Fold this protein.
Amino acid sequence: MSVWTDLPGQGAVVEQLGRAAASERPTHAWLFTGPPGSGRTNAARAFAAALLCEQPDPAARGCGQCRACHTAMSGSNADVMVMATENVSFTIQEVREWVAKAQDKPSSGRWRIMIVEDADRMAERTTNVLLKAIEEPPPRTIWILCAPSPADVLVTIRSRCRPVGLRTPPQQDVAELLVRRDGADPALADFAARVSQSHIGIARRLATDQEARERRDRIVRLPLRLRGVSDAVIAAGELVDIANADAAAASEARNEAEREALLRALGAPETGTLPPAIRSQLKQLEEEQKRRAKRSVSDSLDRVMIDLTTFFRDVLTLQLETGTQLINEQLRSELEAYAGRSGPEQTLGRMDAIAEARQRLSTNVSPVLAMEAMAVSLL
């Protein structure tokens, strides 16, 4: 199984990156763009693995079998550095540290590869620190930047990178990936691919986590039980609770795995009191996890808004009789009844209210207040 198998529906991109990996002089800076769920980070890791692949035949690089491929895909290859932040934006100090690391020679492979996730989270001042490193990179360093679209990155950076555009994969391709890779039931995989709108990460979670499916079902059914202002206020609090529960569920397993990995790496004793140096490292990790938790809640709230929007998207589809497939096909009868009680203008107004709430949530507004205002607008 090659490193490209987790990129469904990206045949043109795989071909482009395969040719680059086989080259002896690949471009030194790349910009991977695509909508959420298109697999930008997966593509970046796969490309890094192919660049470092130990296959002697250049055309076979990205085999997925050699040690370099395994370690690059798992995140343990010393020559692949992934720059990520759980905060709203990268700090200048973070970027300076990574620019310094980029000057190091590869430890074992042909290249030192610097992957920057969410490059759009850089302020202009911070981006200027990165610009010089991309303009004048060391001879064996390759930069891979990931962002939702080219417009999310400063033109000075964009002009110095080779573009790679990923698209939202077809629903059927995502479903097949879930069956093949995660062992999901085919019917459940089809459902997850459809309601996630082909977002690979969300689809995987829905296909493998029953509680995640139940939380989503509560979200999309919420408009069906709004009868008055009191219902709207209760529903707003419920949405915030769902987002918090979803974020906690996503973080819990990851946090524990990070803690155990750190203890193993530091050689911590299995029983007894931990030495001061190890306790200090654990405290630092816990602080990082708390900062990440805030971002996780923000992302979960945004996902709640997206799922809620799919309800009204389906209602509008029925009202306009477009014949387009419903995202929430499992609610067809309820959606048809709801669509018959209002017109397209009201539905568009409700979708606008959700979009406005998403915008407010990106600022420092109280999530409960933003949700209450939105829920009242849905009446």
The chain is about 60% helix and 5% strand. The mean pLDDT is 88. The beta strands are 29-33, 80-83, 112-116, 141-147, 162-165. Residues 231 and 238 are 10 Å apart (CA to CA).
